[in-house]
């Protein structure tokens, strides 16, 4: 099978000795929307720049449609990159900015104009085609940068935090547009972000990175509900982790000896479990009941630290016996105002299938 993009054991060590990317392996299908997600400095941008050709690859191979790209300069790769600041030419019209890449390639004017017109129409930019970008809004500039990246008809569009400069409302609107555009054009998108909500909303698969290494590659829902590593469990969503030792496996359910007694959760499918493990419980899976209710699975005693109702959402902060806090949200119909007094003893519980047991490290 030939992938649109393949990174095979790719590594990057900067001249100063910094290992920025370590043994990065990824195969991307045509038309996939992939997000690189992780904290600042984890190597997302470096990886993107190696794919674009702006950064050399220290080890491993980078292939596009089965052809090795390591030694090709950026202009000879079938990729386009969109930078966070858009890097538009302020003195050129929108039309010229968009057509510049084709102009540099020496494409005849008639052919160039036809391509530029088509992409300006696709992105709704016809009305501002003759204006200069410095007089336009952030959202419009973002669209011009997209048009400029797409007009060269790349196999792969590389986007480095392209929505980072926009305010929250515009960001949301452009997110939807971007997703629609990507599906319509069928172009492979590789998108760098440190905003998890953006990655979860846009991507087919998310690559979570930490300290130069891939922690997990999964579709958003799976990443959210079935983390593979403690880093992902702490970085994505709102999980509570219970450290413990594996007591045994009952089919798919792992039984864990924790400081709060025996607890059960789904055994992580990607790694063999033994010895030290972590039981990961998403906030959404936790139920609160008054203490004394019997027959609950995975029951943990706690006390209510706060109970607030904002609009139609009840926010509850509970404190475990070991002092850790667990914050939960639910529709006000579920936990009505006044259902739990502050400092009341309660029991937290969850269904084993909603929790995941992963290796401790
Ligand atoms: N030109 C460079 N020379 C030396 N080290 C660099 C260079 N560029 C990046 N680094 C280092 O490489 C590591 C990865 O950086 P990179 O910019 O790829 O991370 P990132 O995940 O994109 O972070 P951010 O979200 O802050 O952009 C960091 O430790 C960074 O300091």
Q: Helix and strand layout, with pairings?
A:
Blueprint: E1 5-13, E2 19-28, E3 33-37, H1 44-52, E4 59-64, E5 67-68, E6 79-82, H2 94-104, H3 109-122, H4 138-150, E7 156-160, H5 168-185, E8 188-193, H6 196-202, E9 205-210, E10 213-218, H7 220-225, H8 230-235, E11 239-250, E12 253-258, E13 261-267, E14 276-282, E15 287-290, E16 300-310, E17 313-320, E18 325-331, E19 345-349, E20 356-359
Parallel strand pairs: 3-8, 3-9, 6-7, 7-8, 13-20
Antiparallel strand pairs: 1-2, 1-4, 4-5, 9-10, 11-12, 11-14, 12-13, 14-20, 15-19, 16-17, 16-19, 17-18
Helix pairs in contact: 2-3, 2-4
The protein binds adenosine-5'-triphosphate.
Adenosine-5'-triphosphate is lined by residues 14, 16, 18, 20, 38, 40-46, 194.
Keywords: ATP-binding, Nucleotide-binding, Transport
Family: Belongs to the ABC transporter superfamily.
InterPro entries: AAA+_ATPase, ABC_SmlMolc_Importer, ABC_transporter-like_ATP-bd, ABC_transporter-like_CS, Mo/tungstate-bd_C_term_dom, P-loop_NTPase, Transp-assoc_OB_typ2
Describe the structure.
The chain has eight helices and 20 strands. Helix content is 23%, strand content 36%. The strands form four sheets. The protein has a six-stranded mixed beta sheet with strand order 6-7-8-3-9-10, sandwiched between helices. The chain has a five-stranded mixed β-barrel with strand order 11-12-13-20-14. A five-stranded antiparallel beta sheet has the order 15-19-16-17-18, with no helix packed on it. The chain has two domains: 5-225, Rossmann fold, CATH 3.40.50; 230-359, RNA polymerase II/Efflux pump adaptor protein, barrel-sandwich hybrid domain (OB fold (Dihydrolipoamide Acetyltransferase, E2P), Beta Barrel). The protein is globular and about 80 Å long. Strand 12 (253-258) and strand 13 (261-267) form a beta hairpin. It is of the alpha+beta class and 361 residues long. The protein has helices at 44-52, 94-104, 109-122, 138-150, 168-185, 196-202, 220-225, 230-235, and strands at residues 5-13, 19-28, 33-37, 59-64, 67-68, 79-82, 156-160, 188-193, 205-210, 213-218, 239-250, 253-258, 261-267, 276-282, 287-290, 300-310, 313-320, 325-331, 345-349, 356-359. The site of adenosine-5'-triphosphate has 13 residues, from helix 1.
């Amino acid at each position: 099978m030939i992938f649109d993009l393949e990174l095979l054991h790719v590594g990057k060590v900067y001249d100063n000795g910094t290992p920025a990317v370590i043994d990065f392996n990824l195969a991307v299908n045509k038309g996939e929307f992939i997000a690189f997600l992780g904290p600042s400095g984890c190597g997302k941008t470096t990886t993107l720049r190696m794919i674009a050709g702006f950064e050399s690859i220290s080890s491993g191979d980078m292939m596009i449609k089965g052809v090795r790209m390591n030694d090709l300069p950026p202009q000879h790769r079938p990729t386009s990159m969109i930078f966070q600041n858009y890097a538009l030419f302020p003195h050129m019209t929108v039309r010229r900015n968009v057509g510049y890449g084709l102009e540099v390639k020496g494409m005849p004017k008639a052919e160039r104009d036809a391509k530029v017109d088509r992409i300006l129409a696709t992105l709704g930019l016809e009305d501002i085609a003759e204006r200069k970008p410095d007089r336009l809004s952030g959202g419009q500039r973002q669209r011009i940068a997209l048009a400029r990246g797409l007009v060269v008809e790349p196999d792969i569009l590389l986007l480095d935090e392209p929505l980072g400069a926009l305010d929250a409302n515009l960001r949301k609107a452009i997110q939807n547009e971007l997703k629609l555009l990507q599906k319509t054009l069928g172009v492979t998108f590789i998108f760098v972000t440190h905003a998890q909500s953006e990655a979860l909303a846009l991507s087919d698969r998310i690559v979570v990175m930490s300290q130069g290494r891939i922690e997990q590659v999964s579709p958003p829902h799976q990443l959210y509900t079935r983390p593979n590593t403690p880093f992902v469990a702490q970085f994505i969503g709102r999980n509570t982790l219970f450290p413990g030792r594996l007591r045994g496996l009952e089919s798919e359910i792992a039984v864990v000896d924790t400081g709060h007694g025996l607890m059960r959760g789904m055994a992580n499918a990607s790694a063999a479990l033994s010895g030290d493990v972590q039981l990961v419980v998403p906030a959404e899976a936790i139920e609160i009941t008054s203490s004394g209710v019997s027959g609950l699975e995975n029951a943990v005693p706690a006390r209510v630290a706060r109970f607030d109702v904002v609009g139609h959402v009840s926010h509850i902060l509970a404190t475990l016996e070991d002092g850790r806090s667990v914050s939960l949200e639910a529709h006000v119909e579920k936990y009505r105002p006044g259902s739990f007094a502050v400092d009341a003893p309660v029991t937290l519980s969850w269904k084993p299938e909603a929790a995941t047991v992963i290796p401790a490290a």
